[in-house]
TrEMBL record:
The chain crosses the membrane at residues 7-37, 57-76, 88-112, 118-137, 149-167, 207-227, 239-258, 278-299, 320-335, 341-361, 382-402, 422-442, 454-474, 486-513. This is dolichol kinase. GO terms for biological process: dolichyl monophosphate biosynthetic process. It is an enzyme of class 2 (transferase).
Amino acid sequence: AVLVESLLVFAVVLSVHAVVWDRFSWCAVALALQAFYAQFKWDRLLQQGGAVFQFRGAANSGLLPASMVIPLLGVVMKERCRAAGIVYFERFGVVVASAGMLLALFLSVLAVGITKPVPTNTCILTGVAGSVIIYTMKHSLTVSEVIEVLEVLLIFVYLSMILLYLLPRCFTPGEALLVLGGVSFVLNQLIKRSLNVVEGRGDPIDFFLLVAVVGVVLLGLFFTVLFTFMDSGTWISSMFFHMMTAVLGLGVIMPWLYRLIQRNPLFWLLQFLFQTQTRLYLLVYWTFLAASACGVVFYQNAKRSSESKKHQASTITRKYFHFIVVATYVPGLIYDRQLLYVAAVLCLAVFIFLEYVRYFRIKPFGQTLRHLLSLFLDERDSGPLILTHIYLLLGMSLPVWLFPRSCAPKGTLPGAGALVPYSGVLAVGVGDTIASVFGSTMGEIKWPGTKKTFEGTMTAIFAQIIAVALILIFDSNVNLNSSYAWILASVSLVSLLEAYTTQIDNLLLPLYLQIMLMA
């Protein structure tokens, strides 16, 4: 299974390399070869219990698929923005690709360093790949860009030491690379933009995303330190939690956002949300869907109470939420992507805040949330945090947040790139959902080395093709320019990756589909 997963990742890397064919795509190929060998060292460390931190069990390290995501995103973003003539974002793509390669190399060197006896061949390969990447960076980056890349690496190292210690068994090494690498980029960008505020420069919704992500992470770190010295389950602690959340929100996050957007954040947000009648209709519709999702949770818990305390939600029941998320995102993508962008940020902040309330058992809702959500746990929620619903939201939202709007003059990219914002809907909302439902109910022929079925994968590919046809009908901005073969190949590769990966597919699959469609 690991070998097939690696072959699929190599197929994506070589596809991007064939399209781009520059020094960074050659570096991506070198990084993939090196990560392939280092991945086996991580797998052995996890099996022997020799890893530095406690990682999620029942999964391989996932180093290769995770290592290639950020570098390939940077490479394809650089190419798209170069074609559009937007130099600033072309250089930003170079920085993203370079920093992603350094983060992946750091994890590989860590695995090689703690493996006993020292693996000579992997050491040599890591050294060669690292030399090629550093040589390319030396001749491609300016001094300020090199400093920015090193800042991201430094933030990643410190975040890894803190969060992997505080949150055992929540991530595999690959998932940690993706999640903590993403947070490191966001924090670095926020610091950079806060120090270089230029009035009227930058989109307020981008600043809103940066401040919201950093704000909830800082909030979590603050309360984790605080509740090591006091019991979080008491009413006094709960009152202190709510009071300090208000103080940090109104006293730190709001002024920070005010400095960046040069206006009152609350007034800006209200004006933005109710700017047009279409937005009002969408907000009412989304409120109805949110109430429906809560209804599913309460109904399933009532069913558990009446049947058996050991009752767990089935795969099909969990996929109800995928259908609800698809129904949420598709109208937003068609009618108002900026509103969807902001609403997804707000939803992420609420999800993470509610997870803090559940984890710290904050009264009056902490224990209730623990009871309600325990029904929907699966083997991937083996750590103290429940992250699968947050990963689902991230998988649907990242293609919207990472879409290079400045490099798409008409609001959409040409060819297959027009489907980039729909990557989450196609890969997770349609493909993963249909594969799980049909595979678990009708599947008989299993892929070698996995529990996934041939029927599930084939049905997922067919469903995504139908979804693309429906998008063409209902979204007039999408024009594929006869790039149907590339779309079919992209969808097929990502669907096969879903069958073989043991990583969080809600997070990994949309990013790989986005890379293929942007390429």
